[in-house]
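Task 17 of the worksheet. Students: predict the tertiary structure of the chain below and write it out as structure tokens. Keep your answer in the requested format; marks are given for formatting as well as content.
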Amino acid sequence: MTSSSEDAIRVSCKCNRFIADPSHPDDYEEQLRKTYNVAWGGMQADTMYCHHMNSKGEHLLLCNKSADNAHPCMGVMYLDIENEKKGVRCREARRAGLPHDSCTVHNCAYMKAYGQCDFMNAINGMRTT
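Model answer:
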């Protein structure tokens, strides 16, 4: 990761952004469901982190974008509703004892490009308390 991304990790626990309907390929929603193992009507899924997306709300791997395009935030995307639109909102990761799923090469551009994710390492470091 670049030093600017590393600096962002230290300051951004969540950005509170809301993403309702980003531009995406035709089969985007189905790919997203498979990538995050969405089940139970969307109420059960693997963790989607804010850094898995760019500033436009596009999922980096599903939209063929590199890790350089990641939104520099270590927040977690939670289902939310804003102005009667369903979407996801970036919020702070839960504390220790309530785990989130780890990044994988299938959902994280950093894991795919570098074999590790400094955002995930920082999140795990914060959650030990």
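Marker's comment: Residues 73 and 114 are 18 Å apart (CA to CA). The first strand starts at residue 18 and ends at 19.
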